[in-house]
Amino acid sequence: MLQRRVALVTGGGLGIGRGIAWALAEKGVHVAVCGRRQELLQQTVNHIRDHGGQAMGMTADVTNRDDIERLVAAVVDEWGQIDILVNNAGVSGRTPMDEPGETRWLNILQVNLTGSYLCSKFVLPHMKGPAYGRIINLSSVLGRFGVPGYAAYCTAKHGIIGFTKALALEVADRGITVNAVCPTWVDTDMARQGIEDTAAVLGTSAEDFRARAIAAVPIQRMAEVDEVAALTVFLCQSEAAAVTGQAINVCGGATAGSGG
After folding, report:
1. Where are the domains of the chain?
2. Whether this model's pTM surpasses 0.85
3. Which residue numbers are catalytic?
4. Which end of the chain has fewer CB atoms within 10 angstroms, the N or the C?
5. Exposed e or buried b for every residue in 230-239, given b needs 16+ CB within 10 A?
6. What percent of the chain has pLDDT over 90?
7. Are 71 and 89 in contact (CB under 8 A)?
């Protein structure tokens, strides 16, 4: 039963994070969301409250230690503990090796990797059980294989899988599970931006590249936010207590031939 569990979902203002927050709230979970834009967070919170759920939203930069300490303290002050952490906050973007400067490279690694580390570090002391706790890290199919021009994002998402496996073993004796979810293209703002950026580099239209990207997915469509959210909710339930240290693909068959 997830009723009255407490969850913190990073990047919960839109896209996959918002979908996960809504799905958890439907199961009776008290949900805190964080992100950088208060107006988007408030939309997530309002939807949950309008449907009878409990929710709060706070702006926070997941790469900032002080922000995370403040965020976690606020959630614990409100609800006493944190049972579920969804490390969803992430950024993408092209980082070709001939790009001048390292700003984008560093930002992608810091948000995706360091952000997940810091949130896990400060949430774990407040996972009180008994014999229960769930950390779900959002990786990607780009954590399974490489894509030219996206070295930073591929590195970060491969790193999330390594982080997941190591942390799962570190906290297993507390009854806490740690898993990663690896989606293919999901119809979100981030995916749309990625399609536009790649199309521009290839000298084609966004519509043409989107069609080519979908054609490369065996099920011939993008994944839906609800499908990623449903897997995340399952991993939070008692029936998934023996599932830990795993990276589970929601890829429409895209990784079936890659060994990932």
Report:
1. 6-184+223-250
2. yes
3. 153
4. N
5. ebbbebbeee
6. 80
7. no
